[in-house]
Write a structure and sequence with these properties.
- The protein is α/β, with parallel strands linked by helices.
- It has two domains: 4-277, Spore Coat Polysaccharide Biosynthesis Protein SpsA, Chain A (Alpha-Beta Complex); 305-435, Hexapeptide repeat proteins (UDP N-Acetylglucosamine Acyltransferase, domain 1).
- It is built from twelve helices and 29 strands.
- Strands 1, 4, 5, 6, 8, 9, 10, 11 and 12 form a nine-stranded mixed sheet that branches. A six-stranded mixed sheet has the order 16-19-22-25-29-28.
- Strand 2 and strand 3 (42-43) form a beta hairpin.
């Protein structure tokens, strides 16, 4: 087999991170889907980027489009330090260049096609196309080795999915015993089951390894094809199946659990469930695996703090994740995720909820089964997640499974936490900024 460094130097990873994420609104109202926080400390795109880094991929293009400012900032602050430009390593965020025309990307294939110039400049032998909005752990190098061993023109990441779950959601493949793809349908109404397992089908993960020269040829052909939506799953791959060597590579999970972990957190309920899994005693997704670390940008915040040990005012967080900069000041947190710089004031209760960061829960407030976006203040005594009709009347989103979602600066029951004001220095008693306590709590 080709040496590790020599092989990976011939590979360019292209991460598609330009989707609107409409089904995740209001969380995607102000940010791209790959930039949505996950698990308290992470962004969704961190999983794909960590897979690249752990697999040895050192040349990465991230193609953005909608509301990409926070995503660009996150990658710049958290990921550039892992790559040395002088050694030919990089992770570059590429907004639409409009080199070909002035339109937005028309599909996944069109996004890559409009960046052919940028890709060609790196002279890769292989191009791996990835999505930036899925949660999973995967060694892309093993997929690349299978691609080379099969002398394939393109290799597609394959996932076994229940037939009912795949309907209208996944591209579905027919695969022979050697792994060669015989047929491909994009999001069919009636997916073809696996002959040996009629309850499941072979679904596409939206991950592709291409021989670079062939990729350019197929993209140029698709760009001129009448009626094409310029999508890999809908147009490019089906057209290649009969004429090219198209192979499938079954997902090999680096999460090392009894069942493979792959999540498309494309809806608010799916997002909620994937986050809630993390606070379980034995979560399906292992974030503490030193052999396959998930990296991110960690801001320079102080450690989390718990104050008051009084019986009626005890600070506690049970079965929960508490991030840097958080203060639990006499409140109770159960089975929840507190994002950075979140404040839980005295006698407040937060249960089965996700607070994305810089959230302030007022005294005696109660929050249950809720997702609260950044910089939201819940007033003292307010109740969130107990009355769906009241929550909807306030302007909040309530999901089909009854999760209340509060966006940034949305509704009347909360407002953005104002930045601290510094009017000068004071000698004497410490300020709230210094202790983390209000005057009454001091």
């Amino acid at each position: 087999m080709v040496g590790y460094d020599a092989l990976m130097k011939d590979v360019l990873a292209v991460i598609l991170a330009g989707g609107k994420g409409d089904r995740l609104k209001p969380l995607t109202r102000d940010r791209a889907k790959p930039a949505v926080p996950f698990g308290g400390a992470y962004r969704i795109i961190d999983f794909t980027l960590s897979n690249c880094l752990n697999s040895g991929l050192r040349k990465i293009l991230v193609l953005t489009q909608y509301k990409a400012m926070s995503l660009d900032r996150h990658i710049t602050m958290g990921w550039n330090r892992y790559f040395c430009r002088e050694l030919g390593e990089f992770v570059d965020v590429v907004p639409p260049q409009q080199r070909i025309d002035e339109s937005w990307y028309q599909g996944t294939a069109d996004a890559v096609y409009q960046n052919i110039y940028t890709i060609e400049k790196e002279s890769p032998k292989y191009v791996i196309i990835l999505a930036g909005d899925h949660i999973y752990k995967m060694n892309y190098r093993l997929m690349l080795e299978a691609h080379i061993a099969n002398q394939a023109d393109v290799t597609i990441g394959l996932l076994r999915v229940p037939v009912e779950e795949a309907r209208r959601r996944f591209g579905v493949m027919e695969v022979d015993d050697t792994g060669r793809v015989l047929g491909f349908q994009e999001k069919p109404e009636y997916p073809k089951p696996i002959p040996t397992d009629p309850n499941c089908c072979f679904a596409s993960m939206g991950i592709y390894v291409f021989n670079a020269s062939l990729l350019f040829e197929e993209l140029c052909r698709d760009a001129t094809r009448p009626g094409s939506k310029h999508d890999f799953g809908g147009d490019v791959i089906p057209a290649m199946v009969s004429a090219r060597r198209v192979y499938a590579y079954e997902f090999l999970d680096e999460n090392r659990k009894s069942t493979a972990y792959w999540r498309d957190v494309g809806t608010l309920d799916a997002y909620y469930e994937a986050n809630m899994d993390l606070v379980a005693v034995d979560p399906l997704l292992n974030l503490y695996d030193e052999q396959w670390p998930i990296r991110t940008y960690q801001p320079n915040y102080p450690p989390p703090k718990f104050v008051f040990a009084e019986e009626k005012r005890r600070s506690q967080a049970l079965d929960s994740i508490v991030c840097l900069g958080c203060i639990v000041s006499g409140g109770t947190v159960l089975r929840s995720i507190l994002g950075p710089r979140t404040r839980i004031n005295s006698y407040a209760e937060v249960t089965d909820s996700i607070l994305l960061g810089e959230v302030d829960i007022g005294r005696h407030a109660k929050v249950r089964r809720a997702i609260i976006d950044k910089e939201v203040r819940i007033p003292p005594g307010a109740e969130i997640g107990f009355d769906p009709e009241l929550d909807q009347a306030r302007g909040f989103v309530v999901t089909p499974q009854g999760v209340t979602v509060i966006a940034k600066s949305d509704g009347v029951e909360h407002f953005p936490v104002p930045p601290p004001k510094f009017a000068g220095f004071r000698v004497g008693m410490p300020t709230r900024m210094e202790t983390g306590l209000s005057q009454a709590e001091q």
